[in-house]
Each structure stands twice: as structure tokens, then as C-alpha cells.
Amino acid sequence: MISKYTLIDEYLTDIICNYYFRRLKKNTSYRRKKKDFRLFVHYLMDETHLLKKLSLVRAIGAVPKEISSAISRINDIRNDLAHGLFPENRRRYAGKKKVLYDGV
After folding, report:
1. Of the candidates 10, 35, 73, 93, which lies 20 to 30 Å from 41 by C-alpha distance?
2. What is the pLDDT of residue 25?
3. Cβ proximity of 75 and 97 under 8 Å
4. Domain map of the chain by residue range?
5. Is 100 helix (H, G, I), strand (E, B) or coil?
């Protein structure tokens, strides 16, 4: 689950960086050596939460509802696991007494 969360975060960061920093050539990376890019990534992207990145990506362009809701569910489970030793005891899972993702 954490690897999916991290991959989604990277994809969203990539979309945002593509919007603000155009690639120099098709097969080259961003201007990673440029100070403005490094500052943007280190002080904004690294400090921005997943759902805020999703909001920004939605402002840039359309995101299908299924993808947005899947990202939100993954974020919810990640937060439950990261912030609780026993996530099954959280109010959200009180009825079933287990952590569920999309009913499973």
C-alpha cells in the first residue's frame, strides 16, 4: 500500500513539475541542476500532501472521478496505518473491526 501511495505521489509531482517546468528535450530530465527547480521540489513538492497535489493537478486538467476517489481511499488507508498502531479501532472501521479498501 505504501509503495502505491509513494508512486501516486511521484506521478502527481511529475504532472505538476511538467506544468511549471517544461522539459528541455524529449528524452532529457527536468532542469534538475537549476536552482529554481530544486527549490520548487525541495520546499514545495516535498512538503505538500498528496490530496493537495491532487487538487492542483485537478486545477491543471481533468482527473477522472474514479481515479480521484481511488487516490483518496489510498490516502485514507495510508493515514490510518501511519497514525494509528491499531487502525481497525478507528471510528471509520468500528462497524467491521477491520481496515477495508473498497469493501475488501
Report:
1. 73
2. 59
3. no
4. 2-93
5. coil
Cβ–Cβ < 8 Å for 68, 74: no
CA distance 32 to 58: 25
Q: What would the grid cell of residue 97 be?
A: 473491526
- Identity of residue 66: E
Rounded to whole angstroms, the Cα distance separating 17 from 37 reads 8
Are residues 5 and 81 in contact, defined by beta-carbon separation less than 8 angstroms? no
pTM of the model: 0.77
All three cell numbers of 78, joined, read 495510508
Q: How many residues are recorded in the chain? A: 104
Q: State how far the Cα of 58 lies from the Cα of 64, in Å rounded to an integer.
A: 9
Over the chain (104 residues), what is each successive 10-residue block's mean pLDDT?
Answer: 89 92 62 82 96 97 95 87 73 70 67
What is the model's pLDDT at position 37? Answer: 87
Instruction: Tell me the residue type at 60.
Output: I
Grid coordinates in use for 6?
Answer: 509513494
